[in-house]
Amino acid sequence: MANLRVHNDRLEVHLTPAEKSLALRSADVIVQRDDIRSATITDDPWIWIRGIRRRGTEVPLVVAAGVWKTHGGSDFVLVKRKRQAVVLELSGGEFARLVLSTSRASELIDRLKVGAPVEGEGEPESDPDDTEQGGESAHHVPSDVFAEEETSGD
C-alpha cells in the first residue's frame, strides 16, 4: 500500500506500482505542508468521495483510486474497503482534498496537532480547536511536525 512520508515542508504519498496503475498516475502525490488546512479521521471514507471520477478506478466499497473532479477543483482518492481514512483539506496546489485509507490514522492525526514534538522531545500539546463529533475528529493542521507513516494493512 501507499507509504506516507512527512517532511518539514511537504507530505509525500508514495504510491505502489499497482496503485499508480489503478489511479492512472505515473507520479507520487506531493503536498506542501503550508497548503494543509485541516485533517479529519473517518471510519467511512466512501462518504467523503465527491464529484465525478476524472481518471482512475472505482469498484464501489472495494477500491477507489485516482482523481475526482469537483466544483472546487480536484480531489485525490486512495480508498480501500471500509478502512479508516484521513481526509486532508488543502488550500492550494494540485488537489483540493486528499482522501487516504490508512491503518494508522489516529497516529498521523496526533502528530498533526499544534505543538507536536519532534521525535525525542516531550509529549504533544493539546490543541483547544480539536473537536469530537459523531465518531470523527477534526484537527486543524499546523505547518510544524509530521511523522513518517505507512498505510500498509493487507
Give your account of this protein's structure.
The chain is built from two helices and twelve strands. With 154 residues, the chain is mainly β. It has an eight-stranded mixed beta sheet, covered by helices on one side. Strands 3-2-1-12 form a four-stranded antiparallel beta sheet, with no helix packed on it.
Which properties best describe this structure?
154 residues, eight-stranded mixed beta sheet, disordered C terminus, four-stranded antiparallel beta sheet, mainly beta, globular, 2 helices
Q: What letter string, H or E per element, gives the SSE order?
A: EEHEEEEEEEHEEE
- Unreliable stretches covering 5 or more consecutive residues: 117-154
Residues in β-strands, percent: 35-45%
Q: Bin the helical content.
A: under 10%
Give the helix/strand class: mainly beta
Distance between the termini: 8 Å
Shape: globular
Mean pLDDT: 77
Question: In which order are the strands of the major sheet placed?
Answer: 5-6-7-9-8-4-11-10
* Rg measurement, Å: 15 Å
Biggest β-sheet strands, sense, barrel? 8 strands, mixed
Total of DSSP H or I helical runs spanning 4+ residues: 2
Number of strands: 12
In a few lines, what is going on in this structure?
This protein is mainly beta and 154 residues long.
List the SSEs and their pairings.
Layout lengths: L2 E4 L3 E5 L2 H7 L5 E4 L3 E7 L9 E8 L3 E8 L2 E8 L4 E6 L6 E5 L3 H8 L18 E3 L2 E5 L8 E2 L4
Parallel strand pairs: 7-9
Antiparallel strand pairs: 1-2, 1-12, 2-3, 4-8, 4-11, 5-6, 6-7, 8-9, 10-11
